[in-house]
Write a structure and sequence with these properties.
262 residues; alpha/beta; Spore Coat Polysaccharide Biosynthesis Protein SpsA, Chain A; seven-stranded mixed β-sheet; two-stranded antiparallel ribbon; globular
């Protein structure tokens, strides 16, 4: 039987919205919502949280203790190493990667992605290979073997900070596949990076979560269709600002390598 674990990456050191994973959304923190919604997946065997060894992330460890969920502490910036070191403790066949700034993560979409991954016998599967889902419902699943290869071979800052780029952008080395939604709604933004994102999520959770704690993507879409002005709160924010920043660091890194060779 294929063993699948979910690793939720979480830390408090966000530059744009410090402590964002500890912010309240109704009766729980953002992180607690992510944990509980991930655990609703029918196909994930175990969910763990991977945070950093920094003192400021101790509240994350305490939340995990309260939820009786295993937590791994590792590098703050080399998240690839943090993922690999956490995963190797459980030796799974596959790892689902979820970030703790996605409190609306949908367990049905998680299971659709896992099902496609297993059916295709893929090394890497995601629901944003061609973005069609709202930002904030993003997830990836990759084999432990692919993760281990990335851990051994990845060199660039972007490959270490964001875990999967080495796998995702080496299609000659890995079998890569994805799922898409029936229509393109990628411009909807339900993640948590900016204060404006938090304002939007507070409204969504007040109006959707309080009426249906186990809400799915369709429930949010129904609410926003009836209240279209709500989406104006966080419109215009770049989808991949963090990754784009890492790519700039890659340029500096590669320039240093080039100078050493000269």
């Amino acid at each position: 039987m294929t063993k699948i674990i979910a690793i939720i990456q979480a830390r408090t050191g966000s530059t744009r919205l410090p402590g964002k994973v500890l912010l309240p959304l109704e009766d729980k923190t953002v992180l607690e919502h992510v944990i509980e919604r991930t655990r609703k997946s029918r196909l994930i065997d175990k969910t763990i949280v991977a945070t950093s060894i920094k003192k400021q992330d101790l509240p994350i460890v305490k939340i995990c203790a309260g939820k009786k969920i295993q937590v791994f502490t590792g590098s703050e910036t080399n998240v690839l190493d943090r993922y690999y070191q956490a995963a190797r403790l459980f030796l799974p066949d596959n790892i689902v990667r979820i970030t703790a700034d996605c409190p609306a993560i949908d367990p049905v979409i998680i299971d659709k992605t896992i099902t496609k991954h297993l059916k295709e016998n893929a090394d890497y599967t995601t629901n944003n290979l061609i973005p069609t889902y709202p930002h904030g419902l993003d997830l990836e699943i990759f084999t432990f073997k692919a993760l281990e290869q990335a851990w051994k071979k990845a060199k660039k800052p972007s490959e270490k900070e964001h875990v999967s780029p080495y796998i995702r952008y080496n299609p000659s080395l890995f079998k890569i596949t994805g799922i898409e939604y029936k229509k393109n709604i990628k411009d909807k933004r339900w993640t948590l990076d900016e204060p404006r994102d938090y304002e939007l999520l507070k409204i969504i959770f007040k109006n959707v979560y309080t009426k249906k704690p186990n809400f799915l993507m369709e429930d949010i879409l129904k609410f926003l269709k009836a209240n279209p002005e709500v989406e104006k709160i966080n419109c215009g924010i770049s989808r991949n600002e963090g990754y784009l920043k890492s790519l700039k660091e890659d340029e500096i890194f590669m320039d240093r390598i080039k100078r050493k060779k000269e």
